Amino acid sequence: MNKAKKAMIIIAVIMLIAILTGKTVSASADAIRVYPDVPLEAGWAKPVYWASEKGYVQGFKGGRFGPEEDCTRQQFVIIVWRMNGRPDAGSGNIKEFSDVSAGSVYNPVAWASSNSVVNGYTDGTFRPDADCERRHIATILYRCASKGYIELK
Description:
By secondary structure, the protein is mainly alpha-helical. It contains five helices and no strands. The chain has helices spanning 3-21, 45-54, 73-83, 106-114, 134-146.
């Protein structure tokens, strides 16, 4: 699958979550940051700016959004974590992954693991930089929905 198609899938998933949770989708490019690689006339620009305005997604260094970049496992978990209000991991059973250490990705992955949203791999890794494949997206969304983190209507 090419990068543009993967980017569109991620944007569609974010929009689906918004629709299913009843959150309104509105974005004004005047009120938020404008990414040089997201043309305002693109059909997918509104979802990108909406997700950015809500704080669910952020651009990369240099001010670009990276619409054709692959989404990694850590990026998708961070999106879901942000959409849930950036909760603490809590006192649940936090799985320690050998490839996730303290830093910006630790809290989202710790929250997701302590709530059984992600399990990692049998070798004790999370593989944060691996592509978040469609099966991973579906699994994470299913687990979030079944635990009430995404309210289906």
